[in-house]
Amino acid sequence: MNHTSYFQNKVIWITGASSGIGEELALQLARAGAKLILSARNEVKLHDLQEKLENHNQHCVVPLDLANLSNLSEITSEILEIYGRIDILINNGGVSQRASANDTSMEVNRQLMEVNFFGNIALAKAVLPIFRTQKAGQFLVVSSIAGKFGFHLRSIYSASKAALVGYYESLAMEEATNGIRVTIAFPGKINTPISKSALTAEGAAHGQMDQNQASGMPVEQCVNQMLNALASGKREALIGGKELIAVQLKRFLPRLFWKIIPKQSAT
């Protein structure tokens, strides 16, 4: 499907826009004629990205820390003042993990849930009344294949991504009559730098590119599939390579799943 015309002139707010999937979403959506609000913690990277985008003057940078959203209502009001509406919220911002459940401190557990779950749904709560007033709006929620099953060194990351599924499936049911739709994306191994910023047991950055990421699907291809799913109103989009077979294995051949998956490399 050619999704280009679907996003023409749509006002789209992207979190985690400074790198990886978020950055590529911005590049592809700008080419499709969307008006973008770019959010992440790194304001310098966001401005650099804005300069690279087509029609860069119609986009804006809104720095955002998902762990500290005390000024969220003011930010949302500012966006409305600039654009008059919000058509799509892409909740992509988040942080991964590279530590065992035993070693991960409760502080890091809470930190990951704060960013990946509570920060995420806080944005949804801020935008939802706008969507309801408009009688239209879409959420694209970036979960993970780890939201479908647990895996080595991903206990709280997996939990946070699974929690998003429960939340947004409920929201989608409740808000369908208000013209609001939800698409949940489950990326598998994608070639992005997510492993570099993943948290260790003590909360430091993992700092290295995992082989699973380096050998993963090109981010351009991943984002293209995400946007196709969003434009066609799909509820779910599983995106990746042969690792996606694990989702079907768990569902239809669970005994085989539990034999194979524990032997896979965590990095």
In terms of topology, how is this protein built?
Layout: E1 11-14, H1 20-31, E2 35-38, H2 43-52, E3 60-61, H3 72-83, E4 88-91, H4 106-134, E5 137-142, H5 155-175, E6 180-187, E7 190-191, H6 194-197, H7 211-214, E8 217-218, H8 219-231, E9 236-239, H9 245-252, H10 254-260
Parallel strand pairs: 1-2, 1-4, 2-3, 4-5, 5-6, 6-9, 7-8
What attributes characterize this protein structure?
Rossmann fold; alpha/beta; two-stranded parallel sheet; 267 residues; 13% strand; 7-stranded parallel β-sheet; globular
Could you explain the architecture of this structure?
By secondary structure, the chain is an alpha/beta fold. It has one domain: Rossmann fold (3-Layer(aba) Sandwich), CATH 3.40.50.720. Helices cover 45% and strands 13% of the residues. The chain has a seven-stranded parallel sheet, sandwiched between helices. Strand 1, helix 1 and strand 2 form a beta-alpha-beta unit. The radius of gyration is 18 Å and the shape is globular. The chain starts with 10 loop residues before the first strand and ends in a 7-residue tail after the last helix. The model has no long low-confidence stretch (mean pLDDT 93).
